[in-house]
Amino acid sequence: MTESQPPQVHALLTDGSTVRIRRAGPDDRDGILRLYQEMSPENLRLRFFSTSRRSAEMAADRVSKQDRTGYRALVAESADRIVGLAEYEVVRGTATAEIALAVADGHHHQGLGTLLLEHLVDAARGAGITTFTADVLSDNSAVLKVFTDLGLRVSRRFEGPEFHCTVELIQNEEYLAACDERGRHADAASLRPLLRPRSIAVVGAGTKPGSVGRAVLRNIRRAGFAGPLHAVNPHAQAVERTPSYPSVTALPQPPELAVVAVPARAVPEVAEECGKTGVRALVVLTSGLDAEQAAALLATVRRYGMRLVGPNCLGVSNTEEPVRLDAAFAAHRPLPGTAGVAVQSGGVGIALLGGLSRLGIGVSSFVSLGDKYDVSGNDLLQWWEGDGTTELALLHLESFGNPRAFSRTARRVARRMPVLTVDAGRSDAGRRAAASHTAAAATPTMTRQALFTQAGVIATRGIGELLDTAALLHSQPLPAGTRVAVVSNAGGAGVLAADACTEAGLTVPELPTELVADVLELLPDGASAANPVDATAAAGEASLRACVARLAAHGGVDAVLVVLAPTAISTATGDDPVRALTHAAPVSRSCTVAAVLLDQAESVRLLHTGGGGALPAYADPQAAARALAHAAARTRWLARPPGRIAELTDVHTPEAEALVARCLEADPGGGWLDPRTASDLLGHYGIPQLPWAWAEDEEAAVIAAERLAGPDGRVVMKAYWPGLLHKTEHGAVHLDLRNTSQVRAAHRDLVTRFGDLMTGVVVQPLADRGVELVAGAVQDEVFGPLVLFGLGGTATELLADHAARLAPLSDQDVRELITSPRCAPLLFGYRGCGPVDIKGLEQLLLRLSRMACDLPQLAEIDLNPVVARPGGVTALDVRVRLLPRRARDPYLRRLR
Questions:
Q1: Model's pTM, two decimal places?
Q2: Over 68-126, what HEC string results?
Q3: Which string of DSSP letters, residue by residue, matches 865-881?
Q4: Region 502-531: what's the mean pLDDT?
């Protein structure tokens, strides 16, 4: 099996420091021997069951001769010294391997042993190993705890002075959750010097007024940062009343955070100085680094274990007390608040900071990610999850480094706080080389939407919509559902608001009779309460307030949208309709209430109400409706069960892997599978197919037709040659062949038209009628496997009625995937037709998901059509394309 690990990776320990993990080689003997020689006698005893130094020499020799089959050793390095070792050796003739683990004395209690084991588990799985065993002395509580806390299924058997431990290498949710928790703590620890630094140096703080470094230095001072602050400028003794030094190495003490604003050519050298000095985090504002400079910067950051924001970024801010950090060159300091903000675009960041400050929501911490060499949105989500301040997470991400890891993190964080994003940075749909229905439909936009939907991320279409939604989520309770009551003092405006709600996916229901009567009693003569409620221009503050309160308290609606226009009557009477919502106790603490003020200049603002509450006021009904729709979608997502990955029977992964390996050995560049091989692959995953036969000449086609013809004697004949994808477009299909003469005529027609291009034909019985669907999977180079489902047949791309979810699919994902396309009512019984086999459809999608996850070489698989009937689900046609790809565990802890 293909090895899954790259040559080396960097990963975080629990204290936030960085180690490099790589495969050990012959040149590592001395480093490994030094690791053992520097161990205390007690730790040597626990490792080798004796204190003999000879055991250490033999162990170092074994690692240096590791080119034998069934052996693997990984080392962890810090400051160019080996500080950890994990190794396994396969028990001959089994899928079990014995393991050993060693950690340097100075690196205990940092999670290094666990981290090494995670990477060893990943390497072992890639080699087909299913079980680890280890003998551990009974008083070696540290290693026993490492095994127990790993998250895998561990059993122990006491044998004299030692335990025999068995670890099953099954990657389940418990293991992934344990890895998540370890990663979260390590990530947060690594970001502390960046977002809560004890000391700062600004490198490149110029003396000119337009200097970026000087602007950042000034902002840090103005924010009131209380720790030591220094400037680095070889041409000045002080900048902005801050002592300046000629270089980082000349500083009186190593700063935890260095903000770098020097020319691109100087960035690698400055980063090297920072690393040698002991700086823990870098914010590189500089743009325009070439490939060599970028590689040097990242290599330096990894070598010294620093975290990096940027380059080409606006900076970072943290308004928490007593941190008061504003190391950015935005014109205005962020207002302290509860929104965490991470952006790739500096311009977007400035817009969001300004909007959040104007709304009064404010910012807890802000990070401009820039070119995102290291710190990413995933890191920030984990920081906000535990910082104790953030209640709202706002992201602007143009790219994803590890989307599946991001999805797991976002899914967890979104349970605690709303996570919003601007869906930006769509890549070119033409980047896909494949041309199957599935690959053509699986656009980058669809892939991103699948990620956001599954993770519970609220995806907006622009900055304005994001701020609109943030205002509602910050100030109001979530609506229990989608039912909205619209109240207006101008009938036409109420109709527009009702239309906007309907277009946004909300419902504007008729109100119950008793509620209509109650509302009309509260309003002036001439009012209407059909929903929208037309309170008329004569409605004063008291009647409007009572009307909204009655609607909010009734329970017949989930939200109340109040649309107000200034009128001559209110001006004459001194009534202000807006005061109906603000100059009183909160209208409701359980029902969502929002306003539309048609004469409002701002697109959205927060109206402060009695009791310290607030409600959002929008200038446009459509903005309010979209915000309410996003809030209702969050309610639905929070209410949905987490879902589980189903256990599947009749799945033969090793056989499928062997089939793929044989295909790629015969054709190293990959390509489309022939019908027989594609059918065999589906058979390994228990995906139901219509019976068929392969025929290379006319007589074989006749024999196949006689054997496969159903009770009505009808068959289908399909031409095949390598690379043929859309048979109908080429006229390569003959349907409804009823007798031998028609079968012969169809075969002769195909031979006449396609000649030597055609390598054979597929003969199938004519399928029973049903709903024609398409199901398939593609391997996105960034997002991983994606499963697509929707309306199939020859018009599948024209109608484009599809939905998609990222694999692996949970049972909940499958249900949502089936119900998302517009054609879904056809599956559950429509206009007298009975429901199709939903359980069979679920199984087909789950098996596609499993196949796509098992086989990274599966570039795309396209089942079209899949015929769904009450009695079953059957794939009529299949296309499969393979590419030579290496498996990579997206959840393995490592830095980018």
A1: 0.89
A2: CCCEEEEEEEECCEEEEEEEEEECCCCCEEEEEEEECHHHCCCCHHHHHHHHHHHHHHH
A3: EEEEETTEEEE--EEEE
A4: 94
